[in-house]
Amino acid sequence: MVLSRIFSIFLTFFVFFIDSSFSQEGAVDFTKENYKEKIIEVFNGFKETENTSRIESMLMFLKKHEGLKLHDTLNSRVLYLKGVYHILSLHRYKEADKILQESFVFAAKNQDKLLQGFIYNDRAILANYINDDNKKADDLYKKALACFEEIGNDYKLIETYYNLTVNSRELFKYHEAIGYANKCLELIGDNGELLIYYKRIYYLIADSYIQLNNYEKAEEYINILEEKLEKSNLKNKVRTYAWFYEASADLNVSKGEYQEAITNLKKSVLSWRELNSANVKSIDKSYKRELTLEKELRKEKDIIIKDQRKILLISFLAITLLFGLIFLLIFFFKKNKRKNNQITKLNQELNNLITELKDNNIVLQDKKIEIENLLKLNEQSLFSRVLKISTYNDTINKISVEIDNYMDSNPTASGYLMTVRKKLNTLVSEEELWGDFKIQFEKIRPEFFHKLKEVAPDLSVNDLKHCTYVVSNLKSKEVAQLINVSPRSVETTRYRIKKKIGLEKDDSLYDLLASL
What CA–CA distance (Å, rounded) separates 176 from 174? Predict the structure, then answer.
């Protein structure tokens, strides 16, 4: 019992220790109470920042708590976030496409048009990544467009029109590209921030017109791009200037203005070089920063490795202790089983012995009854003998009295009658009869007369006889018949005996004599 309790406490501690040692890797801000709100928060945050760090925390939390139930709306968002995590962080594009299709099933079930549009957009990008399938991407972009138009989300419409512009150019559908680009610009309107984000749209329109040999329109949009550049407050205009000079060079070549084309192309190359130089510097800074971060990560990794080694060592010791406890429990279990078997065997033997004793007790009870019956029979036999002897004695006395009476009335009677009378008187004496009776009675009740004398030493021989009648449970009438007297005389004798012994009138003489 004690061992099993120790084992359960140890197992609880072991599970708690392992769980706490690995919980540090999970999501800190996700709990079983707030995970639903947090999932929605991560989804909304990703729409704005496209940062996958919190997605990773969310996925680790859900993996750790696989038993949590998610309704369809949450499930569609979780699958969507899992899909984009596979795209942006893991670069598993085919797996991401499958997950996004699963998400779409729930989004369609919930009629979530916004999420459906997201999924169509991301799957269109994946179509180009996986199979370079611009036609499939075009179809998916158009479906996304329909979803965003239905809910009136201008920001996602701008993004989708821009994506359609780029994709249409890849399909050499320059008219469609220009149409999508103009719709994109129409939705942007005077929003300067969005225009800065999609500033390349002018280059795409100009280049599309060049590809269609519409140099006038191309020049118009190149001028617009130049105008936007001059009015722009951008600190870094290098990339935009590179596009501008590149488009100008293409236009010059189309017109046959090769000298101007060379000039613009040089400017474009210089701009790209400047941009490349800035990028190199930025990369150098990033590289240095990454080196610093890598050193910090290595330190943290070393700490984690040490912690993991400690955890593994403690886990090994805990498992060893666990197995030791298991073997110990098995040993005590077998030992207790043997003891239980011995106890069971002893209980069985004891039950058999009790049964045997009960049977013997029944036999003894039967023998006791038999002995009591024999005692009663002996008492009856004894008193029958006493009765017969008393009867003989009474008869002899009567004959002796009659002989005396006859001799008194007839003096001439024969001397022979006197001799007969003497012989009759000597035939049975009272003392002999009493002595023989005592011997026979004490065979049934040993030391009865001795104990009775200790209680009442003044009792006469006749009193002692009556005590034997009482203890033998003979009624007054039965005694009267036995000794040939009246029942009243017997009652009187018994009353006298009670007084000699010191008993009250209501006390039981039989109870006293039976206890001797």
Answer: 5
